[in-house]
């Protein structure tokens, strides 16, 4: 019988590593391109250029998109013959899909934002079973309830922190009934908000919450300029982590900064690590797996791989037996490197049975062109927000017996960006579409946050085989 060890394991996604075969780290390239921040700056500059072009075209004015409507609250638009359509005879509302039905859509304007541009998202289920989501936007975070019929009911919003400017880079994670919100904006810090406040909000009177009066807590004293790329939490051990903070020459070199959440009203800094330089993302776990040797917080190994461009994010397949990770690279399609050289996103499989010598055992190449981004694993399925491709659901249950990835199948998808459906390869290698989503609601509804339009609610089709 497995006896879990109370050992902290932070599965960090280092921007210096990334593809189809594990390789030793090129230390010269790591120092020159990644530790220096050059590659990160290149990607941010490219994204800002792309987003400026979309903004000039009016793509981010979500008011242009027609409202979702149904005759009855229980109605939805089924994925039929590969499409879900809520406005007949209009290609902008004809979404490619497979075994995911469309239950609702709300524009960013309907979700209280004047500037839109969706980013991260997270959710919470109350003790009595009500489901809520937090939807990050350029100018703050929107809150909505997901009804039993899969409809979004807007309840209010929390603006970006008072001393910070708007920023598209806004990430959210959950801690019990709380969410923690970080941003690349300077002087933002980490907002801590209790979603239980939403339980008494009247939808007829949405609330604009105050950073001065309504935050459960705020942390940022250890962030050199109040900026972070992402935030993570571990409910089991009551802590949060900020990663990718700037500048890189600070004490912890933009790596990992831990803060105590035992009392969310008074978060305190626990320390950190800059041993491997910049950290872009992470999953924070109590280690439960086959490697019995490691019990302390330390960098155990750093491994590269074929086609490495910019490792973005990953998730263990099973939090209770941490033997495999599914990871993605956000820039290999742009760089045209490794298995992604033709522009099709690649999900990389890692065997971490040995934390000292992880093995890159295989990969899955997606069927349509695009760029992969945030993914989360639930019950053996990876739910992936892949920018203009929308959300993809991969069946990973074959990986423990066949870690080459040959048994992985895309069992479902919902393409939130029909504007590029006509292109060769069925998609576009560009930074628009869905940034993130939340797949962990007990009801099975999935809330997809998109950069351009707003938030979609989808659910596994009735009778679907997966």
TrEMBL record:
The keyword DNA repair does not apply. NCBIfam families: choice_anch_B. This is Podospora anserina S mat+ genomic DNA chromosome 4, supercontig 1. Residues 1-20 form the signal peptide. InterPro entries: Choice_anch_B. It comes from Podospora anserina (strain S / ATCC MYA-4624 / DSM 980 / FGSC 10383). The keyword Signal applies. GO terms for cellular component: extracellular region. Keywords: Signal. It comes from the Eukaryota.
């Amino acid at each position: 019988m497995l006896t879990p060890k109370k050992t902290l394991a932070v599965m960090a996604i280092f921007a210096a590593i990334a593809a189809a075969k594990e390789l030793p780290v090129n230390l010269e390239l790591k120092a020159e391109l990644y530790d220096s921040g050059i590659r990160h700056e290149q990607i941010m500059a490219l994204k800002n250029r792309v987003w400026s072009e979309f903004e000039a075209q009016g793509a981010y004015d979500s008011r242009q998109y027609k409202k979702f409507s149904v005759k009855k609250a229980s109605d939805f638009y089924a994925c039929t013959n590969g499409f879900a359509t809520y406005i007949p005879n209009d290609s902008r509302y004809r979404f490619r899909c497979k075994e995911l039905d469309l239950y609702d859509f709300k524009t960013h304007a309907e979700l209280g934002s004047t500037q839109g541009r969706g980013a991260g998202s997270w959710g919470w289920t109350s003790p009595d079973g009500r489901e809520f989501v937090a939807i990050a936007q350029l100018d703050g975070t929107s809150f909505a309830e997901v009804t039993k019929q899969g409809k979004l009911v807007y309840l209010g919003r929390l603006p970006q922190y008072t001393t910070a400017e708007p920023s598209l880079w806004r990430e959210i994670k959950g801690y019990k009934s709380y969410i923690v919100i970080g941003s690349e904006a300077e002087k933002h810090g980490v907002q801590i908000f209790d979603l239980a406040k939403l339980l008494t909000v009247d939808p007829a009177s949405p609330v604009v919450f105050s950073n001065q009066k309504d935050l459960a807590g705020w942390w940022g004293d250890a962030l050199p300029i109040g900026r972070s790329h992402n935030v993570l939490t571990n409910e089991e051990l009551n802590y949060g982590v900020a990663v990718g903070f700037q500048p890189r020459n600070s004490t912890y070199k933009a790596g990992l900064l831990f803060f105590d959440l035992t009392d969310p009203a008074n978060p305190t800094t626990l320390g950190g690590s800059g041993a491997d330089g910049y950290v872009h993302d992470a999953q924070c776990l109590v280690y439960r797996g086959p490697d019995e040797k490691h019990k302390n917080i330390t960098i155990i190994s750093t491994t590269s791989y074929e086609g490495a461009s910019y490792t973005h994010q990953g998730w263990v397949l099973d939090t209770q037996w941490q033997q495999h990770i599914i990871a993605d690279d956000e820039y290999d399609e742009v760089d045209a490197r490794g298995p992604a050289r033709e522009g099709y996103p690649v999900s990389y499989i890692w065997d971490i049975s040995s934390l000292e010598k992880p093995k890159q055992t295989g990969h899955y190449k997606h069927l349509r062109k695009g760029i992969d981004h945030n993914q989360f694993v639930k019950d053996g399925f990876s739910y992936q927000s892949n920018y203009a491709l929308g959300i993809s659901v991969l069946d990973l249950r074959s990986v423990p017996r066949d870690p080459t990835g040959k048994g992985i199948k895309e069992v479902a998808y919902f393409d939130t960006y029909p504007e590029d459906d006509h292109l060769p390869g069925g998609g576009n290698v560009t930074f628009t579409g869905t940034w993130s989503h939340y797949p962990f609601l007990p009801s099975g509804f999935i809330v997809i946050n998109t950069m351009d339009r707003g938030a979609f609610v989808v659910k596994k089709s009735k009778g679907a085989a997966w």
